[in-house]
């Protein structure tokens, strides 16, 4: 599903990231953990700056699980970053 040629299309990338981040609101911890791993893969494979821009928009989400997951993702990006964020 996550192929580089698909990610070149900004509309598909934005939709994918938005839907994946939305799944952080799931009530099951197992699902949220899987979403965090999926997001980590997206960040490793593609540019983390565009991913973090999408994450910043989600910090106003009504569900606290989403906000918590975003903070975890930002921390992971900062810890594992080879480039300035």
Give the distance, in angstroms, between the N- and C-terminal Cα atoms. Answer: 26 Å
Structural class: mainly alpha
Could you estimate the helical fraction of the residues in percent? over 70%
Show unreliable segments.
Answer: none
Structure description:
This protein has 5 helices and no strands. By secondary structure, the protein is mainly α. Helix 3 runs parallel beside helix 5 and helix 4 packs antiparallel against helix 5. The termini are far apart.
What's the layout of helices and strands?
Blueprint lengths: L3 H4 L2 H13 L6 H17 L2 H10 L6 H17 L5
Helix pairs in contact: 3-5, 4-5
Keywords:
single chain; 85 residues; mainly alpha
Quick recap:
It contains five helices and no strands.
């Amino acid at each position: 599903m996550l192929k580089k040629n698909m990610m070149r299309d900004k509309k598909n990338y934005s939709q994918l990231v938005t839907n994946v981040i939305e799944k952080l609101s799931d009530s099951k911890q197992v699902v949220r953990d899987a979403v965090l791993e999926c997001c980590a893969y997206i960040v490793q494979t593609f540019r983390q700056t565009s991913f973090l821009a999408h994450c910043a928009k989600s910090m106003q989400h009504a569900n606290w699980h989403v906000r918590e997951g975003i903070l975890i993702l930002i921390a992971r990006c900062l810890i594992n970053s080879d480039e300035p964020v």
